[in-house]
């Protein structure tokens, strides 16, 4: 009989507050990410996405760890190991291109999946001049300067 693990229990706000990229983001925009995002459990060894996938979904790592890698002709080439507080998929969200690497869970992990509607479309009308989530979150990203 297979052993099933219990789903992780997370305090989303506390987990997202570990994310340096979200430092200084207004609480209403953080609430929008929580309200419109979806928590996804990723099993150890499960691929979250593959290089060249066309997607502009951003993943905020809430728990666990992911390995980002590319491939050469024969094998995977590790690029980075990321954990809680890190973000993946932001390059595709910024430039609309394909994924530049693949991501696989090194251990049981949880991510907040934020599709484009989460980042661009307000959950409720916002006052003129207030930033979108994407503008607030990625304002200091090197590819946005």
TrEMBL record:
| Gene3D superfamilies linked to this entry | Jelly Rolls (2.60.120.10)
Q: Which InterPro entries match?
A: cNMP-bd_dom, cNMP-bd_dom_sf, RmlC-like_jellyroll
Question: What Pfam family does this protein match (any one)?
Answer: cNMP_binding
Q: Which residues form the Cyclic nucleotide-binding domain?
A: 21-112
Signal peptide interval: none
Q: What is this protein called?
A: Cyclic nucleotide-binding domain-containing protein
């Amino acid at each position: 009989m297979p052993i099933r693990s219990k789903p992780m229990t997370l305090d989303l706000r506390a987990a997202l507050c570990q994310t340096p990229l979200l430092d200084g983001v207004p609480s209403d925009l953080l609430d929008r990410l929580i309200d419109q995002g979806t928590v996804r459990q990723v099993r150890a060894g499960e691929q979250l996405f593959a290089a060249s996938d066309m997607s502009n979904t951003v993943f905020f790592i809430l728990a666990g760890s992911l390995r980002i890698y590319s491939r050469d002709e024969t094998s995977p080439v590790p690029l980075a190991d990321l954990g809680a507080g890190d973000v993946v998929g932001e390059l595709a969200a910024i430039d609309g291109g394909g994924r530049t690497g693949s991501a696989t869970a090194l251990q049981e992990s949880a991510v907040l999946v934020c599709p484009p509607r989460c980042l661009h479309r307000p959950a409720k009308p916002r006052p003129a001049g207030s930033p979108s989530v994407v503008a607030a979150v990625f304002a200091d990203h090197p590819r946005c300067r």
